[in-house]
Amino acid sequence: MPRRTFFWWAMLLSPLWTGALGCVPCDHPVSDAKDSKVDDRLFGRWEIIPEKGEENQPPDRFTLSAAPGSPTTMRMVPIPIPGEKAQPGDEESMPVYATTVGKLSILSVLTSEPSEPTKYDLVLYRVIDKDNVDFFILDPDVIAAAIKRGELKGTAPDLAKLANPATAVGTALGQITNSPAELRAYLTKHGEQCFDSLDKPIKMKRLPAK
Asked: Residue 65's CB: how many other CB atoms inside 10 A?
């Protein structure tokens, strides 16, 4: 698996956060370099807060900062696990585009490699305070239903296979092919109900500056 994709999946689908079937990818972002706006509240070094009983697992960490040369783009860079030898690609960054849709704060994260067709994951985020942020990914059940009834375009994820450990590996997560304008319209209509585990967010805490 390409390193960019591996880091993103390892972070969001870590054993530290249970219940995820996977991020349903989108062909297009909700916003891009033309119409995004950086959110400097997210700038800094971050770590996923482990769940009870998982405190001894290696922490997933990353930095968010302004992308060089673009006033509207942020970038996410993985922080190597303490004690592990740095690997090629450790400094590879993922472009991140922030925008608001109604009252929702949305990140479009470019997770595909440069050699691959573009693929974005949409993340709802809530800034709790200057040191704590909650992340939420799209709910695969909601997305599958929306695609099946024709409200969204694309391929619905096979929820039964994804929920079964014996068949989950290698099962496609589906694909949303709607345009940015169509994605905005869908999010405007349904709001935060598009996102998974609203009562159990992926919790991030700020790390001390180096």
From this structure: 17
Give, for all 210 residues of the chain, the pLDDT tens digit: 344 454 555 555 443 333 344 578 899 999 999 999 999 999 999 988 877 766 677 778 889 999 999 999 999 988 876 666 655 555 568 899 999 999 999 999 998 888 888 999 999 999 999 999 999 988 888 998 999 999 999 998 777 776 676 766 666 678 999 999 999 999 999 999 999 878 888 889 999 987
C-beta of residue 25 within 8 angstroms of C-beta of residue 60: no
Q: What is the DSSP string of 76-94?
A: EEEEPPTTSPP-TTTT--E
The Cα 197–Cα 156 span in angstroms is: 19
Q: State phi, psi for 200 to the nearest 5 degrees.
A: -145, 75
Nearest to 125 by CA among 74, 160, 54: 74
C-alpha to C-alpha distance for 155 and 178, rounded to whole angstroms: 11
Residue 113's Cα: distance from chain center in Å? 15
Q: Rounded to an integer, what distance in angstroms lies between the CA atom of residue 195 and that of residue 91?
A: 29
The pTM is what?
0.84
User: Hey, which residues does 110 pair with through a beta bridge?
Assistant: 120
- Helix or strand (DSSP H, E) at 148: helix 140-148
